[in-house]
Amino acid sequence: MIERFIHELPEFEPDSKVWEKISAKLGALESPDKKKHAIIRKLYAIPAFWRIAAVIVLCLSAIIFLKDKLSNPKEKISFSYHEEKNTSGIDTVFVSNFNAESGNHCIPEKVNNALEQINKVCQKQPEICKDTIFVAMKTQIDTIDFAINNTDEKIRLYPEEEGLLKIKTRLEQEKNKSIKKLMQYVVS
Questions:
Q1: Can you state the angle between helices 132-157 and 162-187, rounded to 10 degrees?
Q2: Are the CB atoms for 85 and 92 separated by under 8 Å?
Q3: pLDDT tens across 135-151, in order?
Q4: Considering only CA atoms, which of 81, 90, 84 is closest in space to residue 185?
């Protein structure tokens, strides 16, 4: 290509040695590209092997993991807490059942009845429910409910963690105590 343009120049015609030097330099410049392309081609050949090896390792891992999970089914985990009190004519029974497999948390009717009775008192006597002590107790119950819901979510994610069940039991006991205090406050 260069030779063609140099011939068109009127006064300059390079020697044959110059052309040899130019060709040698161009050849030296072209050879790294060829080496680079050869290296790239080799690199593309290697990942195919590694991809196949990775698929085999993943398949074996999945088989081992599933075999272990299927051979050891989870046992149902449940617990309960029971408390009966008669405070000024209001019976309360607090029972909590939790099934780790389904993640279901059962709130019995009597707990709902206690909260409904508190709400009925609030409708009949709204001045009690606007009191700062009542609002603080109700906020505490709502905060504990929020913590119980978060714990339920974590138990669904990590059902093997026994510490979460203990935390949930303590939270529910605290909620029951708070409801009892709130009921005593409302009744008094």
A1: 160
A2: yes
A3: 888 889 888 888 888 88
A4: 90
